[in-house]
Amino acid sequence: MMSLGIVLALNHLYDNWTVAGTMSATYIFCAAIVTPFYARLFDRFGQRRVGVVALAVQTVVMLGFAFGAAFRIPIPALFALAVVTGLAQFSFGALVRTRWAYALRGKEDEDSLLNTAYALESAIDEIVFIVGPILAAFLATSVNPVSQLFVPVIAAATGGTVFFSLKGTQPPVMTPVDVTAPAADTGNGEDAGRGPRINALLKRNRRPHARTRSALLYPGVWIVVVVFVVFNMSFTAFDVSVTANMKAMGVEQFVGLQLAMFAVGSCIGAIVFGSVKFPGSHWKLMVQFLAILTCGFVSFRLSMNHLILLGALEVLAGLVVSPMFATGNLIIKESVPAQSLTEGLAWVTTGGSVGASLGSSVAGVVLDAGGPALGLMMPFIFTGCAVPLAFVGWLMARRRAMRMSPTADV
Question: What is the CATH number of the domain that holds 160?
């Protein structure tokens, strides 16, 4: 609601898609660059300890931005507030998915359960994406141009307070433990010399002061992040372009409902993905989902003036969106150790946010230059570029798997 709310508010106040798209992009980009750093703090000090303070700061600065827009402060000052608001954001999604991994550890068929859990999270996310745009558009067009900026503040403060109060699912902070070896000699000569050998082993493996390795350095993680940067550019480009198209058609009040159709399909796809085990590796599925989504965006451009048909195509194409996000999270789960999982999942969020920021900014410039027809070409161009990148990730994963096990199914 914040990113779309900024676009709706700024375009209404200044009638300029470039300003609206750039400010939304600024907010999203700032949120993206700090997400991994917050995640490292959560992994190192615990979710509740860090989250309570971070949530309080986030609530205050979001309120500041909303009031700044409401009182129409100068654009440079509002941009500064957008930067601060973005820097106060952290990834709730990464925290939740880390808790699922902790709660399901050691369960029978853990991988299948985690697949279902991540798909469930994606479905719940999509419910938010169904309700959020509809509510944002309704408030912006029917109540006040900036009223939609206050709802995310209330939602984050309320939901975040409840979330951090749940102590039972909070994963423990993983820290190195200094272990003292047992005595070397038990008196019968059998264990003579055993203590020194254990001590030497412990000294080699004990690194109490070593810095934690960045999750981005584990094999496969960086390529997932790059893929998420590129293909996530399509979503905000689509949102902004559809908003401009419907405004040009004189039906701006229905933009939230139109955008929600994409989320409806994604929600259905999440339920199916969590219920059915698809053959092949996660990388293979990612390539397939991206190819289908590219075709979907092409169909959106062809049906841009037929809103009912566009809505139906959004539902169909949206079926692969949540599975795409769940697959990316599962690849990260396989690639990083438990003590870096929150950071690894946060990098996926960061990649998506950077892509969303770039997509929003590019779409604003393209819309001012060429209108909605040109703007709606951006989504399938972006997603099409992500397909070969994911294919490279798949080949890299196959090569690693073959080195470890010649019979691996990748």
Answer: 1.20.1250.20
Size of the chain in residues: 410
Whether the CB-CB separation of 234 and 1 falls below 8 Å is answered with: no
> Is 233 a member of any domain?
yes
Query: What percentage of the chain's residues is helix, strand, coil (to nearest 5)?
Result: 80, 0, 20
- Rg (the chain; Cα; Å): 24
Give strand ranges (E) for 252-346: none
User: Residue 258 CA to chain centroid, in angstroms?
Assistant: 22
The whole-angstrom separation of Cα 3 and Cα 363 is: 14
Within 10 angstroms of residue 347's Cβ, the number of other Cβ atoms is: 27
Whether this prediction's pTM lies above 0.85 is answered by no
Q: What is the pLDDT of residues 115-174, one digit of tens each?
A: 788 878 877 877 777 677 778 878 887 888 889 899 999 999 999 999 999 988 888 875
Six-digit token pair at 215? Answer: 């999750």
Spatial separation of the C-alpha atoms in residues 37 and 170, rounded to whole Å: 19
To which residue do tokens 């985690």 refer?
A: 114
Burial letters 48-71, b for 16+ CB under 10 A, else e: eebbeebbeebbebbbebbebbee
Q: Tally the domains of the chain.
A: 1
